[in-house]
Amino acid sequence: MTNQKKSSFTVIGSGRSGAGISKLLARHGNKVKLYDENTAEKLKYSDADELEKEGVELFLGNWSEELLNCDTLVKSPGVPPANEKVQLAVTAGIRVVSEIEAAFAYCPCPVIAVTGTNGKTTTTVLAGEILKNAGIDVRVCGNVGVAFSEVVDGLKTDSIAVVEVSSYQLNDIDSFKADVGVIMNITPDHLEWHGNFENYLHAKFRIAENMNDECLLVINYDDETLRDEAEKIEVPRAYFGTGNDVYRNSEIGAYADEGIMYFFDKEKEIHEQIMETRDINIRGRHNLYNSLAAAISARAFGIGKEVISATLKEFAGVEHRIEFVREIRGISFYNDSKATNTDSMSVALESFDGNIVLIMGGREKGNDYSAVDELIKKRVKAIVAVGETKDKIKGHFGNIVGVETADDMKDAVEKAYRAAVSGDTVLLSPACKSFDMFDSFEHRGEIFKKIVSELK
Known about the structure:
18 helices, six-stranded mixed beta sheet, globular
C-alpha cells in the first residue's frame, strides 16, 4: 500500500466508480467534494444521504468554482480529457487522475490488470475463478461488477485484486502498478475520446508504465500491433497465441497447437500440457485466447495446471457476452449485449456455424459495417435492426441479407423469433452502444433476456 497523506479531492461523476472512490477517499480522512450534473433524485449508484454520511460534500446539478479548490481531481471514465471542467483543473495546475489511480494508493495486495479492445471481461472473471478455486482470497472488480475503489478496503496483503481496466482509466494514472498486466488485443475503438488510434494504443500500454522486473506483461502474440509495441518495453513479457511460434519466439507463455493447450517457462525448464482445447467449456476462438491469458496470469502466482484445467472445464462464461438465454421450439437465444463494436460482434458471429437471426443496432459513431460483410453473408440468414442506427444498418446490409427494422427491443425479439426456425440461433449482438434506448449494455441485456423469457 502506498503511504498517502491526507489530501483534498474533487470527484467528477457519481457513477459506480465516482461514488466508490468518493466514499473510499472520505473514509481515509481526505476532504472530498463530488460533482455531478444530475440532481440528487437522479443519482444511480449511491443516494445523496449515504454519500454525505461518509463525509462527502455534494455539488449536484450546478458546477461551482469551489470545486477547483482541491489538490487532485478524479474524473469518471466517461469524461474525456477535453472536457471543459477537466481543462479548468489542468490550467489551475491540479493533478487529474482516474478512479483506479486514486484507489491504488490504498491497495495492500498484488494486482492483475486486464485490458484490451475485446475479451477483457471474460479474461478478468476467468482469472478470478481460477484463483478462487486455488483457495486465494480474490476480488474481481473494475469495469466488471464493482469498482476497484469499492473492494480496496476489504483486501489484505495476501489477497489478489483482478481488475478490468479501460483505456479511459489507464489514460490518467501516475503510480498504478499491475503485478501482472494483460493486453488482450487492439483494434480502433473509442477514437472520438482519445483523438486517434496512436493515443488509444498508448493509453492501453500505460498498463506497463510502472512495472518492474518482478512484474509480467502478458501480450497476445497473434496481434502484430501489440507484439511490435511490446518489444519497445523493457519489462518481463509473456505471450499467448495459437501455433508453436509462440513457444519458439518467447521465454514465457501459453499457446494452443493441434488441439492442446500448453504453458511454458524456459528459464524454469517448464513446458507442460494443460488440457485439450475441446474441453474448454466456453465456445469460440476468442475464448481460447481468453483462456490462455487467464492461464498465464494464474501461473504467475504459482497456480498449478490441475486447478487451471478444472476451472476451464467448468467456467460458463460471463453475463451479456455470448450468454445462452433459452431454447424455444429448437431456436436458441443468445445475449451478446456487451458487443458494442463490429469487432466484438464479429467474435460472436464466428462462434456459431450459421443460421443466425441477428438483432443489432443502437448508438454508434462511424462504424465500418463493411468489415463484417463476409461474415454476415456466411453466418446470418436475417437481421432485425433496432435503435438510432436501424436505417443505416438496413441501408448497408439490405443487399446482402433480409433486414427488418423494429420499433423497440420487444418488437425486435418478436420479429427475430418469427424469422427463425428450429435449429436457428437468435443472437443479440448490437455492434453499437446502448445509450439511445438503455442505461447501459447490462440494462439492454437484461431487457432482452426478460423479453425472451416471456416468449410463448
